[in-house]
């Protein structure tokens, strides 16, 4: 089949490459000419394990190419996927301007029936508005809008695209559903379950999934506070409750909480939409999830300042990690940078080391190595749990720092090992002493 993928950042690039791997002819469209040029040369514009080899394979095979020109895809594609960003607007609602720009560009060019499959995360009720506008721009053509939300995680984008947990297809007609089943015939044949539903449910499934993941994280962080207060160990607690299959161990890692380009903005957009629809109970619930998340960042920053009796001004602080999670160079809504910002605002001399993420700005100094980051530091904070940091030998750094004090904001370092090397280790939620 001929498949167009509109928007080629993290989501779209992985989706386009995945569609080519499934055997389709794919054209990716983006408004950023530089991104199109890089992708056409078989390279990735983002750090994402396995993406570049797949882009290289299919740009070379001739099955995948990228363009800025909508006229190349309009009547060519059997399915047009919308994969553009829906960032947060000032009001907290999703900013749909990129989605609307796609409709305005594509609509007037369509003269053949086609399926428009939305993958971007949008507030429930968006698709019918898009449908009406397509009907105005391409009257009588037979353009059908449906929703096929995306669940891929950054750092696992290729794996999640090729072997998703489920495929959600929200459509009005059996014909659109059937066309989408053909698009996904490879994973469907491999046993990936399909949930076919109405469009509103499909739009909601995506935000419900992200809200539930955020809830799990905030729940375990609230339990971390309880462990801290009562003298317990939240990691052992998570292990124990995670053995219960109904609960599961995933997304029960306590620490700095969630960040990234999706969870924070998606739950805010869901709360905003819930308020618009007078579902106060959901909006309030999500408000609590978000407040707990913010509280974790504040608490870790306060712990750091507390190490210097409230005055961290001029102290060199070493921050390990800047990306919002390991495996990516993405720093959007990064919990690590949020803590670093607070410390810089309090006057600390903040140095950051991250194996992939670039941190620009006047508030920090990006260290070229862990050694440079830690040299003469008066406090070390571990804020993004890259495997590299777990492999460090704390003895190697004992003489490099000025104070052997470590705040492990991700609860992932081997506390006893660091303590044996003479470090004071602080992990919120691990107050128990065995
Ligand atoms: C998230 C969802 O997991 C994907 O299913 C979804 O498709 C995607 O958003 C999206 O909407 O596009 P992602 O933003 O890549 O994926 O990040 P996650 O792996 O969900 O992690 C989010 C944050 O939660 C990270 O900051 C991570 O460090 C934090 N986290 C995760 C915890 O604090 N504790 C945990 O136990 C797990």
In short:
The protein has helices spanning 10-21, 33-40, 51-61, 97-106, 126-137, 157-162, 174-183, 185-189, 199-230, 234-242, 263-276, 280-306, 335-345, 370-374, 387-390, 394-397, 415-420, and strands spanning 2-6, 25-29, 64-67, 79-82, 114-118, 143-147, 167-170, 194-197, 316-320, 349-353, 364-366, 379-382, 405-408, 424-426. By secondary structure, it is an alpha/beta fold.
Gyration radius, in Å = 24 Å
**How much helix is in the residues?**
40-55%
Mean pLDDT: 97
- Cα(first) to Cα(last) distance is 61 Å
Write down how many β-strands occur, each being a DSSP E stretch of 2 or more residues. Answer: 14
Our estimate of the beta-strand percent is: 5-15%
- The residue ranges in which pLDDT falls below 50 over 5 or more consecutive positions are none
Shape verdict: elongated
As laid out across the biggest beta sheet, the strand order is 3-2-1-4-5-6
Structural class by secondary-structure content: alpha/beta
Question: How many helical elements?
Answer: 17
Bound molecules: uridine-5'-diphosphate-glucuronic acid
Tell me about the biggest sheet? Answer: 6 strands, parallel
Furnish the topology, listing elements before pairings:
Elements: E1 2-6, H1 10-21, E2 25-29, H2 33-40, H3 51-61, E3 64-67, E4 79-82, H4 97-106, E5 114-118, H5 126-137, E6 143-147, H6 157-162, E7 167-170, H7 174-183, H8 185-189, E8 194-197, H9 199-230, H10 234-242, H11 263-276, H12 280-306, E9 316-320, H13 335-345, E10 349-353, E11 364-366, H14 370-374, E12 379-382, H15 387-390, H16 394-397, E13 405-408, H17 415-420, E14 424-426
Parallel strand pairs: 1-2, 1-4, 2-3, 4-5, 5-6, 7-8, 9-10, 9-12, 10-11, 12-13, 13-14
Helix pairs in contact: 1-3, 9-11, 9-12, 11-12, 12-13
The structure holds uridine-5'-diphosphate-glucuronic acid (UGA).
Uridine-5'-diphosphate-glucuronic acid binds at residues 121, 150-154, 210, 213, 217, 251-253, 255, 257-260, 262-263, 266, 324-325, 335.
């Amino acid at each position: 089949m001929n498949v167009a993928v509109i928007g080629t950042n993290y989501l779209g690039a992985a989706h386009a490459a995945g569609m080519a791997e499934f055997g389709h002819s794919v054209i990716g469209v983006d408004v950023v000419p530089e991104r199109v040029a890089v992708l056409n040369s078989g390279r990735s514009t983002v750090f994402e394990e396995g993406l570049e080899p797949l882009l290289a394979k299919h740009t070379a095979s001739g099955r995948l190419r990228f363009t800025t020109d909508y006229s190349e895809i309009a009547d060519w594609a059997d399915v047009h996927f919308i994969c553009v960003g829906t960032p947060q607007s000032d009001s907290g609602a999703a900013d749909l301007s990129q989605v609307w720009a796609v409709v305005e560009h594509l609509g007037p060019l369509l003269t053949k029936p086609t399926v428009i499959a939305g993958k971007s995360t949008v507030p429930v009720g968006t698709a019918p508005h898009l449908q009406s506008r397509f009907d105005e721009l391409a009257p009588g053509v037979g353009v059908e809008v449906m929703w096929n939300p995306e669940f891929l995680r950054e750092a696992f984008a290729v794996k999640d695209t090729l072997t998703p947990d489920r495929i959600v297809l929200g459509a009005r007609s059996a014909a659109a559903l059937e066309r989408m089943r053909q698009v996904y015939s490879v994973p469907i044949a491999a046993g990936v379950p399909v949930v076919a539903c109405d469009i509103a449910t499909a739009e909601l499934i995506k935000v419900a999934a992200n809200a539930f993941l955020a809830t799990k994280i905030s729940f375990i962080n609230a339990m971390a506070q309880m462990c801290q207060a009562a003298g317990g160990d939240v990691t052992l607690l998570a292990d124990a409750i995670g053995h219960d299959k109904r609960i599961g161990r995933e997304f029960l890692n306590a620490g700095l909480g969630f960040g990234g380009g999706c969870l924070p903005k998606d739950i805010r957009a869901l709360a905003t939409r819930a308020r618009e629809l007078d579902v106060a109970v959901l909006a309030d619930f999500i408000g609590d999830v978000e407040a707990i998340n913010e509280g974790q960042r504040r608490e870790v920053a306060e712990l750091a300042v507390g190490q210097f009796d409230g005055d961290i001004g001029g102290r060199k602080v070493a921050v390990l990690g800047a990306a919002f999670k390991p495996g990516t160079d993405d720093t959007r809504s990064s919990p690590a940078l949020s803590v670093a910002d607070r410390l810089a605002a309090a006057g600390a001399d903040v140095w950051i080391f991250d194996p992939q993420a670039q941190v620009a700005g006047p508030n920090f100094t990006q260290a070229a190595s862990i050694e440079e980051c830690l040299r003469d530091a008066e406090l070390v904070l571990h804020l993004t749990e890259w495997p590299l940091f777990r492999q460090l030998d704390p003895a190697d750094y004992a003489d490099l720092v000025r104070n052997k004090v470590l705040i492990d904001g991700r609860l992932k370092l081997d506390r006893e090992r660091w303590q044996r090397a003479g470090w004071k280790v602080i992990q919120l939620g691990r107050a128990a002493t065995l």
